[in-house]
Amino acid sequence: MLRVKNVTKYYGDKKAVDNLSFEVGEGEIFGLLGANGAGKTTTFRMIMNLLDPNEGEITLYDKKIDYDVTDKIGFLTEERSLLLKLTVKELMIYYGTLKSMKKEDILKELKIWLKKFEIEDYEDRKIKELSKGNQQKIQFISAVIHKPKLLILDEPFSGLDPINVNMFIDAINYLKEEGTAIIFSSHQMNNVELFCQKLLILNKGKTILKGSLKEIKNRYDERKILIKADVTKSELSKLKGVKSVIIKGDEIEVNIDNKEDAKGIFDYVSKCKNVIKFEVVELSLHEIFTKEVGAKNE
After folding, report:
1. What is the rounded end-to-end Cα distance, in angstroms, of the chain?
2. Does the N terminus or the C terminus of the chain have fewer Cβ atoms within 10 A?
3. Cα angle 182, 200, 256; round to 5
């Protein structure tokens, strides 16, 4: 559906994006990650046809993205931008009209989304009268009112409380089930792990990791072992493969470089008293991101 192929973008002599390639299919959530200045925003702008790549091509349904194709794209930007003096209805009519929608279709979709976000009585409220969280819901609706085939979400949960986060999660999963292709970008790696089947990590414009979340995690042998038992830190530290032992409340975290060493630790713990927990945990995406991006920036 969306294909980014060998795309490079310069700003003067600076290479902002370097030979970037990825694809996103219908009903797929793709994570595009990177630290500030990695090239994500430039990539989004090229997908939206706001910038032209110096090399490579970007297509949607095998067609070069132009003004006709951009009507099939929705974009929730990290920077919130709403016309505060308009009512919710006026704002959606404005945005929907820009996406070539008829007024009756705009109002129909608006009612559906206001109901999903439990703000049905806000249709005639001015944007400036709404809370930050409700403004963010309206921003989201403005990005999906035209039923986009491709949706770009840049930090969609920023500043939301847990209840509103759950509403957004339900909305994103609904769009996924409807077949919308979604590019998801966030610095909150737990959200990326929750949503994304495939992901790509950028650093200074270059791809440093790419693949499914499972494939990426399987590349690393490091593990954490979480233990609740009558064990001592000093005894654990002596075991083969143990890199560090950290006490966290009533739990002990053991870090090992090789997953094969977990068996020896299990053999020791199984002989201890009051064993409540022994869990071997893969590196989290947050840890992988920090490991890879930090190493590349040293």
Report:
1. 37
2. C
3. 125
Contact (Cβ atoms closer than 8 angstroms) between residue 270 and residue 256: no
- Phi-psi domain of 241 (left: phi exceeds 0; alpha: psi -120 through 50; beta: other): left
Q: Which residue has the higher pLDDT, 271 or 188?
A: 271
What separation in angstroms does the CA of 115 have from each of 29, 110, 141, 171?
24, 9, 11, 11
* Amino acid sitting at position 205: G
Quick one: CA dihedral 81, 85, 86, 87, positive or negative? positive
CA dihedral 143, 146, 174, 132 (to 10 degrees): 30
Q: What is the 3-state secondary structure (H, E, C) of 168-234?
A: HHHHHHHHHHCCCEEEEECCCHHHHHHHCCEEEEEECCEEEEEEEHHHHHHCCCCEEEEEECCCCHH
Which band of pLDDT confidence, cut at 50, 70 and 90, is reported for residue 171? very high
Q: Which residue is it, tokens 């713990």? A: 269
Residue with tokens 């929705």: 74
* Residue 202 to residue 181: CA distance in whole angstroms: 20
d(CA 9, CA 139): 29
- Strand 251-256 and strand 277-282: the pairing is unpaired
Asked if 56 contacts 20 with a C-beta cutoff of 8 angstroms, the reply is: yes
Q: Are 82 and 134 in contact (CB under 8 A)?
A: no
Gap between the Cα atoms of 81 and 36, Å rounded:
20
Q: What is the pLDDT of residues 216-253, one digit of tens each?
A: 988 888 999 999 999 989 999 999 999 999 999 889 99
- Residue recorded with tokens 């190493």: 295
52-80 as b/e: b if 16+ CB within 10 A: ebeebebebeeeebeeebbebbbbbeeee
Q: Which helix (H) or strand (E) covers residue 280, if one does?
A: strand 277-282
